[in-house]
Amino acid sequence: MRELDRADPAGAVAAAAKRCSNWGRWGADDVLGTLNFLDDAKRREGAALVRRGASLSLAQSFDANGPQHGWRRRTNPVHTMLDTGLDAERGVQGFPHGIGGADDVIFMPLQASTQWDGLGHIFDHGMAWNGRRAGDVVTSLGDSVTGIETAAAHIAGRGVLLDVGRAFGVDGELPDGFPITAEHLDETIAAQGESARVGRGDLVCVRTGRLARARREGWGEYAGGPSPGLSFTTADWLHAAEIAGIATDTWGFEVRPNEFDEAFQPLHQVVIPHLGLFIGEMWDFDALAADCAADGVWDFFLTAAPLPVTGAVGAPVNPIAVK
What we know:
Blueprint: H1 9-20, H2 40-47, E1 55-57, E2 78-83, H3 85-90, E3 103-107, E4 115-117, E5 127-128, E6 132-133, H4 134-137, E7 138-139, E8 142-143, E9 156-163, H5 164-168, E10 179-180, H6 182-192, E11 203-207, H7 210-217, E12 229-230, H8 235-241, E13 245-248, H9 266-275, E14 278-281, H10 286-295, E15 299-303, E16 314-316, E17 320-322
Parallel strand pairs: 9-11, 10-12, 11-13, 13-14
Antiparallel strand pairs: 1-17, 2-3, 4-14, 4-16, 5-6, 7-8, 9-15, 15-17
Helix pairs in contact: 1-9
């Protein structure tokens, strides 16, 4: 494992960005980043993993009882009815022949619950994915280059669950501030066996147990507070593995507090704008983990298309694992 100088986050970010850059790998106009690894053959491989037909949603609920508490104006979803059964009963909807209906609307930040980070979500020194200027990518009109809609048709393939919480935690849960290193990932893979191998084009799901604790104890600081997560030192592992995407059951993917004296999401600063890696956050792996532990099979077909909101830098998703 690489040693970190806690006092030099800028140096560590710059060095990791240089080592792990995928800029130009798929051409100057690329908008997919690591999703280029997820090709048709990989999707066929994923589809072939359906054995029993068991289907599990990996999404949290989208409602007012979610984890958000206003950080940078992020709120929980607000759901409002526009037409109701009461309106239909009272005959005030204006439809003929007795037909009535219900209709509703939702207001929410696109990263309020289970979601993907898009490639326009994080910049490094004003630079976005593939060496573009951040201001040329995202304006007040949205992300006109790598908007999340560009990924909508691509995220379906072989999913792999790495239950690091089960492997290294107490009662299946890692403590806050636990940095998951490449060694932890490799040891989890070795313990889970061949079906947990990770390689090119895979969609990796990392369970820490943080969501399970939030459900038991209350949301608390789940959104933005201390949490287990990926160590900054995993940047090289993520690059070398050539995975298409990675998701965790935490708010911020990487360990919090971060591993430097003064830094904010330094692993994001490397893997999104430099690797072009898609990151999923606040996914729910608890039911899937129980199923995988029961049958000893840790891979599955995963479909996880983001809602194609034009120009968005992140979007909600209802990931489905099929075993």
